[in-house]
Amino acid sequence: MADSCSESELYGVLLYYKFTPIPDLEQLLSFYESNCHSLHLLGRVRLARHGVNVTVGGKLSNVEKHIDAVKLISLFEGTDFKLASCHKPSNDRVAQECGFTSLSIRVVKELVTFSSHPLSDSPEISNAGKHLSAIEFHSALRSAGKHVEENSSKRVILLDARNLYETRIGKFHTPSVETLDPEIRQYSDLPSWIDKNSDKLRGNSILMYCTGGIRCEMASAYVRSKGAGFENVFQLFGGIQRYLEQFPDGGFFKGKNFVFDHRVSVGSSDGTVLGACILCSSSYDDYSSRSRCTYCRMLVLVCDGCRVMTSLYVCELCQTSGKGVGSGRSYENGELQETLTCTDLEAVSTWDHSAHSPHSLRRNGTMTLRKLRILCLHGFRQNASNFKGRTASFAKKLKTIAELVFIDAPHELAFIYLSSQADPNPNHISLSPESNSAPLSKSCNKRFAWLVDPDFNGKGGDDWKVADSPFDSLQYQQQKEGFDESLVYLKKVFSQAGPFDGILGFSQGAAMTAAVCARKASLKGEIDFRFAILCSGFAVNMAEYEQQSIHCPSLHIFGNDRGKDRQISSQVSRDLASLFEGGSSVVIEHDSGHIIPTRPPYIDEIKHFLKRFI
Fold first, then answer.
1. 531: Cβ contacts below 8 Å, ≥ 6 apart
2. What is the CA radius of gyration of the chain?
3. How far apart are CA 612 and CA 231, in angstroms?
4. Catalytic: 210?
5. Using one digit for the tens of pLDDT, what is the confidence trace for 120-137?
6. Which DSSP symbol is given to 450?
7. What is the C-alpha separation between 306 and 303, in angstroms, rounded?
8. pTM greater than the 0.70 cutoff
9. Which one, 25, 261, 478, 507, has the greatest CB density within 10 A?
10. HSE (CB half, 13 Å, CA atoms) of 463?
11. What angle do CA 238, 243, 245 make, to 5 degrees?
């Protein structure tokens, strides 16, 4: 696609952050909701008591209007607005994974999650390292060799604050300057790396850098908080993005700058390819395919040729920890099958692959792909049998890659019916027979729930009862009790019927699934799974998790505004999706209401998500 385009086609991506006390968070939230929606901006806005972090895109002229509006707010004085013009996202899948197909505005506890430990206090931003402009940073690197000669006891050290997959396609390289690459999966792993490698940092001048600057604010403050010997910490103001703008030929930066939007990466005029395919080691630095490690889901570089051969990859970190497979092909029962050859027999002997991985060990020393096992949680006032029946077409479409396992929820509900005539309230939904008399109990299976009303008495029974009031489509907002009992029940299911690769929840089942995802770390060893599918979902019992991203690969499926889901509004499901970490969540909006779609292109997108875990 050509670099130039008309004004109507020109698109802009804007990144900025600001650490400053926010006196009225609700007012600022209202500003962003009103401004961004009116300008049709897409992306992520994160607000906290101590500042904001924004990545949005849209028509260039509208993004510029947004900047002008933000500048009128005194809180943002001195903010560095990093605006880049580009084309609109051409790859819907990349844009969706990067969060550029919708607008997510959330109030969070931390603008960036610096520690994976929920009780760890964030470092004081006021103690962050000194800002160096791109020119000052460049000058410091250029003169580093001279500094080493003058004072051999004090060195200049470059510290990359980014994740491993980012550093694999671009980094600073300067003769006579040691660059420390922590090789971390995620930013929250950086504090522990700093703790373990403090001897390499103590007593030296540390030049820190990241993509746009915000990660260095937290990381440099953490290094300086270690006290004596850690005072000389500096950070590249505006990050690699501002440096490449100042030095279009790349300067001391080699390769490409990974970015968290649909552009994927931004390079210099130098054109150096630093990355390499993880399988064949050929020069390659394009993450557009969004290929991920089979085990940990971290992005990996896989060239076009190797992707044709296999969809199973193992990242460097998983290889280092003893996980490794090689791909191959074999014939069984006259059919060509993709197989995996174990490259670490010791790892296999100490870990039950047949139970916990997507592969099954064969006698000839290879592993063949098995289906994913997905535990399915039905909606309110449903049961395993009718949910299985309603999803029969869905299960059939996935039969080659997934096995769906259906269970009843633990809370048995009473049979109820409406005796009054239809209520005119549009929020009320009639679920009763046309007759005013009680239906025959023998014709109905028991109904269950994962969450119940506060006044639930725990009694089901076989007799029909007249409902106290018309059925309300918003009743799910009151059903918040019974979670602990349902959680204990799920632990038992995982223990006796597991393992499961993922959990699929529909409506209230999705609410239950989301609550389990939020507690995934604390449930390790009792409820282990690798992904979640949330259909027509909503958030319940999630207040404590609204200020931090949920770290669990997730697929969110719900009806769009045209879909007219009369039970769960599309915005409620979008709000739930926004609670999950953007980099590992996928959203599918369809036009079919309160169902799980089984027609193209939706079923193809669902299959694509699931194949990441095979």
1. 501, 502, 503, 552, 553, 554, 555, 609, 612, 613
2. 27
3. 44
4. yes
5. 567 788 899 999 999 999
6. S
7. 5
8. no
9. 507
10. 3
11. 100
